[in-house]
Amino acid sequence: MPKTRELSEGKRAQIIVLHSIGLSQVQIAKKIKCSRCAVQTTIKRYNDTKQFKSRSGRGRKRKTTAREDRYLKQNALKDRRQTAKELTRCLIILSMAVYIYVSSLS
């Protein structure tokens, strides 16, 4: 996880323009007020993709579906003393029941 927010598309465009003019990465970093590493990464990413946009699909992927999230929330609110381990166990039982139900139809 980054320590600071990511650069806006406008700042990335400025970095590319300043780089094409011939400024060094250190000079660009001082002018834009960001780290040299951010400048270097932006230039490299632009050379690879020719875009200023952020990459999509970053971060950890979801393990639960929206339905499972609703189920967990309902059960947690129903019995506030239930531990995360108990909620997980109930969710596993529910998912197995759904699996058995679907497999019995075929």
From TrEMBL:
Primary site of residence: nucleus
InterPro entries associated with the record: Homeodomain-like_sf (IPR009057), WH-like_DNA-bd_sf (IPR036388)
Assigned GO CC terms: nucleus
Compartmental location: Nucleus
SUPFAM superfamilies: Homeodomain-like (SSF46689)
Listed name of the protein: Transposase IS30-like HTH domain-containing protein
Species, as recorded: Cyphomyrmex costatus
